[in-house]
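Take a look at this chain, tokens included, and explain the fold to me:
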Amino acid sequence: MNLSEIALLRLRNQQLVSPEFASAREAVHWMGAMQAQDFNMVKWAAGIRIPGSTENVFDEAFNAGEILRTHLLRPTWHLVSRDDINWMLSLTAPRIRAAAAFRDKQLGLDEKIFSRSNTIIGETLSGGNHLTREKLIEKLQQAGIDTGDNRASHLLMRAETERIVCSGRIAGNKPTYALLRERTGKPGIISREEALYELAVRYFTSHGPATLADFTWWSGLTTSDAGKALDSVKTGLNEVKVDGQTYWFSPDAGLAKPAGETVHLLPAFDEYIISYRDRTASLPSAHHRKAVSNNGIFYPVMLHNGRITGTWSKTLRNNAISLSLKPFSPGGNMPEEKLTGAISAYGSFYKKSITLSVID
């Protein structure tokens, strides 16, 4: 196996070719978690993995609480299925809080303030209330809690990691917060050992072939815990060494061959790119800074047979989307028919017409 074959296997396992699922809940459950700080982009990240899906289908699943958005692995938002959020947070939340501890101290946020904030947020949302960030901040300020200098983000993230709140229904195209217990019912908590096992199974099945370093990065676990998790599942995985690195993946992954040429328009922060510490299988090092900025911003990218060949951007104009493609090489060397299909799928998801320009 070589890096190109690894990229092709990842396409299949990440449901970007021959997708197997018909709902957002199934697709997100398969992926384990999907990075989601850009809410509009993560809609397409889910939609591209579900044949015939639309933004309305995503919104319905999200509003029904079948999929939820919260701070879950590293200190950033992820999508997760309702069935998985409680056990996953029980495993990963302590690491998220530890990562925020230094900044918490700088902001003067201590456990007494967090306790007050959590109580206010819980009482405000109780009874099925779904409120925007702005409304919750207003309630905290009325109680005399300082939310300035990004304190609000830390207060709300603490409430998420304490399993008090998660995402609520979309309100006027804005995300809201709701009580986690009201969105999920009885918590599905499992033992720590079971959680480590389940997280590793989910990752290497849906994201493999991947290395231990990749899993450690994605999960936010300590190196020790990530190693324990991999050790608990490795007998059920295939192992291959490529360029001195050991990769693990499901034996059910299938052949590392696409069904002909494939072209994708992936959203910013898509799991296909962001979920690996080493991205050279899909992103040539010469083009890395064109797809990922120096401060960690992941741009929307074009994919040809699993390799990133350019970036793209969009502008919404009336009821149409204007797409601008910027290939790394003039012409992009992508088959026109497949590119047209990828653009059409994007337009169909949002139910909007597409106008196109190419920047050489």
About this structure: Residues 3-184 form a domain with the Arc Repressor Mutant, subunit A fold (CATH 1.10.10.10). The two ends are 33 Å apart (CA to CA). The chain is about 45% helix and 15% strand. The chain has two domains: 3-184, 263-358.
